[in-house]
Amino acid sequence: MVRRSVLLIQTSELKILLRRLFIAVLFFCSIFFILLSTVDSPLTSGINKAALRVTGPIMQVVEYPARILHRAYTYLYDISRIYMDNRELRAENKQMLILQNKVRSLEVENQLLSRLLNYTPPPEANFISAKIIAESSDNFTHILFVYIGDEAVKKGQIVLGEESVIGRVDTVSGQYAKVILVTDINSKIPVVVERTRARGILSGDNTEMPSLIFTRSTADIQEGDVIVTSGVGGMFPAGLPIGFVSLLQSNEIKVETLADISRIEYVRIVDYGLSAEQVKIFDDSSESGADER
Amino acid sequence: MILPKAAQMKDSLYEKWRLFGLHGIPLWTTLLLMFLCLIPSDLVGISRFCPTVGLICVYYWSLKRGYIFGYISAFTVGFFMDVLSSSPLGINILLMMLTVFAVQWPARYFQSASFSINWFIFAVVASGVFVLKWLLLSVYYKLLISPNEIMFNYLATVLFYPLVAAINTGIQKLLPQERINE
Q1: Chain B CB contacts of A51 below 8 Å
Q2: Closest residue on chain A to B152 (Cα)
Q3: Best mutation target, A135, A207, A257, A287, to test chain B (most B CBs within 10 A)
Q4: Is the CB of residue B182 less than 8 Å away from at least one CB of chain A?
Q5: Which candidate from A34, A205, A207 shows the least CB-CB separation from B88?
Q6: Which chain B residues touch A263 with a CB distance below 8 Å?
Q7: Using CB atoms within 10 A as the burial measure, which of A29, A112, B64, B173 is most buried?
C-alpha cells in the first residue's frame, strides 16, 4: 500500500517535471524561430509557405459573407446615386474625349521621335488581377493576402493598386500570395523625385506615410513633389508613381501614397520579367540598406 | 459480464473525446476571431482600427480556464499571429507564452475579481506585452519604431476588451467544468 502511494507520488512528480520541460522547450522554440528569422532560412520560408497554404482558404471563406453584405450595400447605395453619377459621368466623358485626341497626337509624335532616336522600347509587362482576401490591421505590420488562383506569380513581383505601386509579393504558396505594402517596415524601394530626379529610398516604417531616406541634404525637394520608382536595383521598372511628398522637415521627409489601400478590392500583380537573381540582389541590398541605418 | 464492461469503456472513451473537443473550443474561437479581424478594410469601412484579438483571448482564457488554455494554445495563437503578419516568426509566440506565464501564476488571486478589475489588469498586462514587442521589433529591425502607431493599437486592444470578453464569456458558459482524467 505504502509502496503504491510512493509510486503514485513519484509518477505525479515526473509528470510535473515533464510538463515544465515541455514548456521550456516551447519557449526555446520561439527564441529559436526569432534567431532563425534573422537569417534568410529556408525553414522559416517553408513554414510561412505551408501556413499560407492552410490559412488562405480559411481567409477566403471568412471574407466571403462580408463581401456579399458589402456588395448588397454598395448596390443599394449606387442605385440611390444613379442620377447624380450619370450627370457627372457625362461631363467627365466630354473631357476624356478631348484628352483622348491629345493622347493620340502625342502617341504619334512619340513614335516619330523614337524612330529618329533609334530607341528600343522595353518589353511589355504582363499582369494579372488578384482579389484581396485579407488585410492585416495590426499596427506592427502592413500586409495583404491575395488570391492568385493558378497564375504563375513569383516572389518580388510588383503590386499595383488602381494606378500606383502599393507593394511587392513576399510569399507565394498554392493559390495565395502575401503582399508586403510600401508602408510596411520590411519595404525598401529605390525612388526618385519626379521633378528634380533626386534619388532616395522609400522606406516603410509601419506608419501610414513611409519615409524618404538616403537623399542628399542639398536635394531640391518640395511638398507635393511626386515620387516614382527609380528602377535602380532592377527590382521595379523606372517611372511608376508611388506617392507625393506630404511632410518636409529638416530631418524627415514623409511620403503619402497615391493609392488608398483601404478602398482597393483588386490589385494588379505585374511581371516585368525579373529573374530570380535580380530578386535576390534586391533582397540583399534592402537588407544591407536596413543595416546601414 | 464482458459486454457491459466494453460498453463502459466505450462510454468513457466517448466522454474523453467529447471533453477533448469541448476543451478545444477556446482555441478555435480565438483563431476564428483573429481571421475575422483580417477582413479587408474596404469591406469594414474602418482602416487599420483592429485590436490584437489574439492577446485579449490568450489573457481571458488563460485566466478563466487556464487548465484548457495553456502554453500549447498560446504557442498556436502566437504562431498564427506571426504567419498572418510580416513580423519575424517567433516574436508573437514568445509574447503570447509570456502572457500565459504572467497571468496563470497569480490567476488564483484575481480569477473571481470584478470585470473592471480584470479589465484594468488586462490593460497593465497588455502594456507590458506591447512595450516588449516594440523593443523586440526595434532590436530586430535595428530601428526605433514609431511608438504613436503602437500606442493607437494598444488603446484599440484595451477598448475592445469588453466586447471580446463578452463573446468569450458566452462561449465559456457552454463549456463543461470537469477536466479530462489523465
Answers
A1: 79-80, 83-84
A2: A139
A3: A135
A4: yes
A5: A34
A6: 42
A7: B64
- Please name the residues in contact with A293: beta carbons below 8 A apart, sequence gap of 6 or more: A213, B142, B143
Closest Cβ opposite residue A139 in set B42, B140, B153? B153
CB-CB neighbors (< 8 A) of B75 in chain A:
26, 29-30
| pTM of the full structure | 0.74
Q: Can you give the residue ranges of every domain in chain A? A: 127-293
Beta bridge pairs of residue A113: none
Asked if residues A246 and A223 have their Cβ atoms less than 8 Å apart, the reply is yes
* Pairwise CA distance, residues A204 & A216, whole Å: 19
Q: Do B43 and A51 touch (CB under 8 A)?
A: no
CATH 2.40.10.340 assigned to A127-293: yes
Nearest in space to B122 (alpha carbons), one of B169, B71, B58, B59: B59
Side-chain-facing half-sphere of B66: CA atoms under 13 Å: 14
Residue A125: CA atoms inside 13 Å, Cβ hemisphere, count?
A: 16
C-alpha radius of gyration, chain A, whole number: 26
Residue B66, classed as helix, strand or coil, is coil
ipTM > 0.85 (yes/no): no
Beta strands in chain A (DSSP E): 126-135, 143-147, 158-160, 165-173, 176-181, 188-193, 199-203, 211-213, 226-229, 241-248, 253-257, 266-271
Distance (Å, whole) CA A198 – CA A196:
5
Q: A132-156 pLDDT, tens per residue?
A: 888 876 667 888 899 988 878 888 8
From chain A, pick out residues whose CB is under 8 angstroms from the CB of B141. Answer: 185, 290
> What's the rounded Cα separation, in Å, for the pair A271 and A155?
10
Among B71, B89, B149, most A C-beta atoms within 10 A, so best to mutate, is: B89
- Residue-wise pLDDT tens digits, B70-93: 899 999 999 999 988 888 889 999
